[in-house]
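Data availability excerpt. The first of two example chains:
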Amino acid sequence: MPYQHNGSEKAKILIEALPYIQRFAGKTLVVKYGGNAMTDPELESSFARDIVLMKTVGLNPIVVHGGGPQVDALLKQLGRESDRIDGMRVTDPATMEVVEMVLGGSVNKSIVNLINQHGGRAIGLTGKDGNLIRAQKLLMEKQTEDGIKTIDLGLVGEVVGVKTDVLEMFTKSDFIPVIAPLGVDEEGNTYNINADLVAGKVAEALGAEKLILLTNIAGVLDENKNLLTGLTTQEVDRLIETGVIYGGMIPKVSCALDAVKGGVVSAHIVDGRVPHASLLEIFTDHGVGTLITNRPRHA
């Protein structure tokens, strides 16, 4: 009977997930959420269900989100533009007000609302809450014909510290923290920080089991455009040196690499355009992205 066949397939999937659920129970996962997964209603709801399911089976998910397109849309509405240099937004004080309003306000609260609608208990934070993310001004160096030049991006920051006690308070309870990537320095200045970097540093500070970066591509591809499903840190270094990993993938892969070298057990670069990508990557034998780990693979 077709129904029984369907039922047995579902049972197989559940059984396949069981050892992963057992292995990761009580462990912390940091998920960077952005890109397509954030603008397609079906993918939004599949992401929210993934996060709720993780929490329900005993994992501790922490969400760090981006929101560049939403910031661009509001700037455009206001008749303003912001320049980008190598993908980084030049952020003057007026732009920073918009960034903070969008990331710390509307985007953060819509993700919190989405997770709550699917049965979770999400709570929204920015890096300013409880001094969660301590930042400093990012000085970007760029190679020019006249040598290395330092470029001022304005109020763009990098992470210098993460107050883990704030997050541990939530992960030990039923709450799911949702973090906007804003940081603050000792003088109280607010900085706009790349969400991948924030996710990586939060994962490092917590000694997380996994860092999951949802992207708009299938993962890390080799010379023939085949997906590389598992890489050691040494293999990633070699792929960057030989130019197989290039352009916009370098910052994302470098962030994954730094996290793993900093003590995160594994980092995953996952296609956020695939419904339930996070669950498939964590709870199935094959996964749907590229896993980067510090541990050498056994033959």
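And the second chain:
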Amino acid sequence: MGGETGAIAKMAVRVSDDIFEWFRWSRVKLPDQNFDCVKTTAHAPNKDSHTHPVDAVFWYLDPYLNKIIYLNTDLKSYASGSIDANRIFSALKSLALTIDCARVSEEWQDRYHTLGDIPYEVRGMLFVYNHDSEFDKTFYDLLSSPVKRRGASEKRSVKLETLPIADGQLIHLFEPGLISYLTTVVTDAQRLHSDGTFPEKNYEFFYPDLRLHKASGAEFERAATAELLAGPYLIIRHDQVKKLNESTGDIEVRFPEGYVIYYNRPGASAEEFAYFLDVLSGYQILDGQHKIRIRIAHRSIASDPRSNFRRAISLYAQEWGFDGHKLSRLESIEVEVVEIYQYSFSRTDIGWER
């Protein structure tokens, strides 16, 4: 295995161990394994044979769909000055063709689908990591910025709608901002566990029952889906935190059951938080006496989000005519700002060139 492919393989292990494992994703332990293209005429018309790359394959059971989701993953690591719309478009195009093949390739299925007759779906994931921690642009604005395409005389915006994504095919894009947010969630939850206020294992990702789908599976075993991780908030319900009293030998409750909610929005206005409180009310999370902690983890946070949250409580309580008891319930919600954490995998560009 060459230096570049070896670096990608090691990165896949670190991603799985340090980020996705906490969200209960699994990784098929076969990184960096190309497979033969079965649609060469369409995917590489000027070649007699062609292969598609696989840096890693992650999987989890979707509790709504009740099927295994396989994420054929393309891992990219880059310095802040190395990223542009051309490279992202090229990576997405390659990934789209890879998934188009993977969904029908017997070689791919024999290698990666090892879970028997369980229904499954193959998706793509482009994981774009900024290893020098200096990328400060809005990623999706960058994608729409005009760039000079190969052979063109002037700069033009890439057209994502021209990507060869087949019907029913999904590609999840994990860009630097989302990766920083998820790394922050994991790091902060581990810190809370060290402080004795969050359990090691007895936590569940909250899935409200939908009109057409109800969540399946054991609560403390459900994974956080890619859609949940990319959402504006991540609701986690946890059990009591129990610790051994080494002096008495007794198991003691150190912290009550409740909710930790990671909020991936700036918190820029009272109206923003009032809407969020209404969402929590609709999920019946504001009922009862369990503890609620909101952890604001956004890379462009507002100047004073906690003051905005306090104003939101007044707005929300006034709109619904809450009595003193319900108002005190809202006021008991803890709101903290979490410092964004940036993990460093590498100091060199890896993954752009094969």
